[in-house]
Design brief:
The chain is an all-alpha fold. Helices cover about 75% and strands about 0% of the residues. The protein has four helices and no strands.
Length: about 120
């Protein structure tokens, strides 16, 4: 009875593991397809220099690059920007976004009397 129970349990665990592997593989494929579509759209709306700059930004600040990519794709699909965007135009966009998110800190140093 115990051997039968163990065999059934092992079979259920094996099926569960196979199902999880299948779901993970599907998720990877879906992400790869989405990235391929994004890359194709970005190739159309950005010049090669601008794409290279965006790739460099992605290495340093992936969240910022992702947000810019999504915003550019949305604007291009709605017809609100002229394609292709040059490197200088992308620099301006990056400068505007970094100025909005940059915080200035003011440090004041008060001298104490040393005795």
């Amino acid at each position: 009875m115990s051997d039968e129970y163990d065999a059934e349990l092992e079979e259920l665990l094996r099926r569960k593991a196979i199902e999880q592997q299948r779901k993970a593989l599907e998720e990877q494929q879906r992400k790869a397809e989405l990235e391929a579509k994004k890359d194709a759209i970005l190739r159309v709306i950005l010049t090669p220099e601008a794409r290279q700059r965006l790739a460099n930004v992605k290495l340093v600040k992936p969240e910022l690059a992702e947000a810019i990519e999504n915003q550019l794709i949305a604007l291009a699909q709605s017809g609100r920007i002229q394609a292709p965007i040059t490197d200088d135009e992308l620099k301006e966009i990056l400068a505007q976004l970094t100025n909005q998110t940059r915080k200035d800190y003011k440090i004041t140093i008060r001298e104490r009397g040393w005795k």
